[in-house]
Amino acid sequence: MPPTSNEWLDPAAAAPDATARFYDAVAPGYDAQVDGRTDVDNLRLREAFCQRVAAAAGPGASILDFGCGTGIDAAWYAARGHRVHAYDLSPGMMAVLRERCSGEIAAGRITTAAGPLEAMERALGAGDPVAAIAANFAVLNHVQDPGPLLQRLAVHLQPGSALVANVLNPFYGRDMRHGWWWRSALRSLGQGAIRMEGRVTTYRHFIGSLRRAAAPAFAIESVCTADGRSLFGSLGANHLFVQFRRRS
Ligand SMILES: C[S@@+](CC[C@H](N)C(=O)[O-])C[C@H]1O[C@@H](n2cnc3c(N)ncnc32)[C@H](O)[C@@H]1O
User: Fold this and answer.
1) Keyword Methyltransferase on this protein (predicted)?
2) 3-class SS at 39?
3) Looking at ligand 1, which atom is closest to the CA of residue 65?
4) pLDDT over 70, % of the chain
5) Per-residue pLDDT band at 77 (split at 50, 70, 90)
6) Distance, CA 93 to ligand 1 centroid (Å)?
7) 6: which residues sit within 8 A by CB, 6+ positions away?
8) Which atom number of ligand 1 is nearest to the Cα of residue 67?
9) What is the structure's pLDDT at 156?
10) Predicted pLDDT of residue 232
11) Separation of alpha carbons 34 and 26, rounded Å
């Protein structure tokens, strides 16, 4: 999980290779750290997110799990009959997925790719575009400018279909009580996101910035919390579900 407090502050880190190194290092303990936490409701968030993606894809339809991590969601989708393309920047996270999902991979229900984005593009190749793209638990928050990435992802998604992202709420009330949130916000003025420096850097994108970054390939269709509250009632939520619709 990216930091939600200043516990990991370390201005030395940035860039995708630093992100990959960070996740390679945390991969063995990731599941316990994220889904095993008792102080936050990550399991409920994950279930609500996966349900949303499965509904967007339609029964049995193919899903690209972008930034799939250790494969918790990929296993969930595959168990419900979806064909899953799992991709992650971090080979370490992918190694955990490959162990978790060895049966599904052997059966061809999950395909995998790790490393630079080109690895995903090669793996998807000229195959049929997927019915939905998922990006759970702050994957897009590691990308400073999601615009070029979203345009490249759109190529692999059926026109009219959805990309569903779980992103960190830039205006999470509990974070806003801390000085580090205000210092980060001030340093990030005019950048379209609040940049949080740490062992891994995150960018808490404003919804308006995401909307601009997504065009022309996508429009934002909805933004809500895991329990369905609208953006205007989201101060108490650390995570937002953003649903992008690929333009036809
Ligand atoms: C907080 S983890 C979430 C993992 C998984 N989606 C989950 O729900 O548990 C963020 C993941 O995004 C991946 N990631 C970060 N930047 C990425 C990028 N540009 N392309 C693909 N994956 C990326 C990381 O390697 C990491 O596995």
Assistant:
1) yes
2) coil
3) 6
4) 94
5) very high
6) 8
7) 178, 180, 198
8) 22
9) 97
10) 82
11) 11
Average pLDDT over residues 18-28: 96
Residue owning the nearest CA to atom 27 of ligand 1: 69
* pLDDT of the residue at 15: 65
- Ligand 1 atom, smallest distance to 138 CA: 1
Cα dihedral 32→75→237→227 (10° resolution) = -130
All domains of the chain, ordered by start, with CATH?
Answer: 16-168+206-246 (3.40.50.150)
Q: Which residues have any ligand 1 atom within 6 Å of their CB? A: 1-2, 16, 19, 23, 34, 67-69, 72-73, 88-90, 93, 136-139, 142-143
189 CA distance to ligand 1 middle (Å)? 26
